Fold:
Amino acid sequence: MPKGFYNVPAPKNEPVLSYAPGSKERQLLKKALADARAVELDIPMYIGAEEVRSGKKKKLSPPHDHQHVLGYFHEGDKSHVEQAVQAALNARELWVNLGWEHRAAIFLKAADLLAGPYRYKINAATMLGQSKNAFQAEIDSACELIDFLRFNVHFMSQIYHDQPESSPGVWNRIEYRALEGFTFALTPFNFTAIAGNLPTSMAMMGNTVVWKPANTQIYAANVIMQVLKEAGLPDGVINLIYVSGPDAGDVIFSHREFAGLHFTGSTGVFQGMWKTIGQNIQQYRSYPRIVGETGGKDFVMVHKSANAKEVSTALSRGAFEYQGQKCSAASRAYIPSNLWDDVKKYMLEDLKSFKMGGTEDFGNFINAVIDEKAFNSITGYIEKARQNPMNEIIAGGKYDKSKGYFIEPTVIVSKDPSSVTMCEEIFGPVLTIYVYHSENFEQTLELVDSTSPYALTGSIFAKDRYAIELAAKKLTNAAGNFYINDKPTGAVVGQQPFGGARGSGTNDKAGAKVNLLRWVSLRTVKETFVPPVDYRYPFLDKE
Ligand SMILES: NC(=O)c1ccc[n+]([C@@H]2O[C@H](COP(=O)([O-])OP(=O)(O)OC[C@H]3O[C@@H](n4cnc5c(N)ncnc54)[C@H](O)[C@@H]3O)[C@@H](O)[C@H]2O)c1
Ligand SMILES: N[C@@H](CCC=O)C(=O)O
Structure:
């Protein structure tokens, strides 16, 4: 137990390395990529102290080069979910009783390992396994994951310091207890940082965890687990399993000790799980905490006073970085008629200059989408949009999966502001633009607010301050992360806490104090130093 009120090291955002030609980091990253390509990994599940190999081996390949084999992971079944739950429950008592400064030290050490000796390994794994270019991998698997770990330790210590008032003769205290039971982290393919944050934020607050990543992120998830082990995370605190989502759900959501779900992924999957948890509610010891950050249909709204070049750059980056596979990616834009010719010209120039290909060629801005299922879904949207006479595809629209899952960055201009690609999350490199009459700003704000069920990110571009104020007011509930004269992607831990409401999630802001508070159950303790010995109030007449 702590023997002092410790101050943790003040967190600072991890500097983003440039990987410029000739730089040391570029050379080291290239070497890490070559090293990773040269071996075929055999990736186990991690349950308690065991590395579990089921023998059911599944291939892992780079999305941009699907014939190459990076390695195999061992797929599990329901029996592995049961083992992982048991391992988490077994590890709980020791972990819950470990002084918080030791928990903090483990995660701070993990951050330093990622910033130092593991930086190129985890970036290379993300570049190869998830087809992110060097810059996108650096801001995700290195910097954002490091920031999550360091800032969360800082927020944890703030939470523990947050104590109630006490009146004379009384000492009130709050204990921030771990949840009773085990917790479940279910993570998406698109951010290595999110995959690392969901289980570690729960574990940091004293919980033990079953962690199931997306299959297409296992290659980098394995590196996260190596880092955590090297940092000294005790066996069983985080148990990493590779099973189907429904298999995991069947075992976990019917378990009496299930205490919390930390999810990031699609809206439909989250709503299905919430329903199951609701149906099973009487089986649980406690009401499970449910946190889910889900889909988006993120907008860029432009006022007639905006700068066309700034808008086009925000669209080129906001819509197409990481092939549009960010929950925050700009996927619908509303451009005023007075600026359209300029925005279009600048954007088409940008798109023409994009190079597309594998991640090992550092000249490529665009890489592949994650897998064949995503490729088929995204290209399905493009084909349907092509058939709609209200739409015109002004850029891209072509695709090829012979070597990797490549889809050209595609821009659709739609005369119908409620056409399918203006409303639905596509999760790929597709941007739909609606050109509105520049005098109809206020009506268009209403359209932005009501077009989609999501409310994750959105931007307003304007020079006119009255227009900015009006947009901020009218779009109060349209985005959990709202940007003024900036693209709607690229939130930084500690600077722009991230998450959305409406259909986009519970808005529990990843990498923030409010998120960590979901993983503790408070016990209020009142201690009275000299308890009264007479029940009577002073005003009562004595006999
Ligand atoms: N709001 C955010 O912060 C945020 C961040 C990243 C991604 N996302 C969203 O995530 C989605 C893309 O990620 P994805 O394709 O990995 O999402 P996904 O919903 O397909 O998968 C997420 C996780 O859930 C598992 N899963 C899938 N079906 C399941 C089921 N029926 N039962 C239990 N588990 C199941 C997957 O295996 C994976 O581990 C997009 O919708 C994106 O907007 C949101
Ligand atoms: N936090 C990231 C998005 C995470 C979702 O995929 C951003 O702000 O771009």
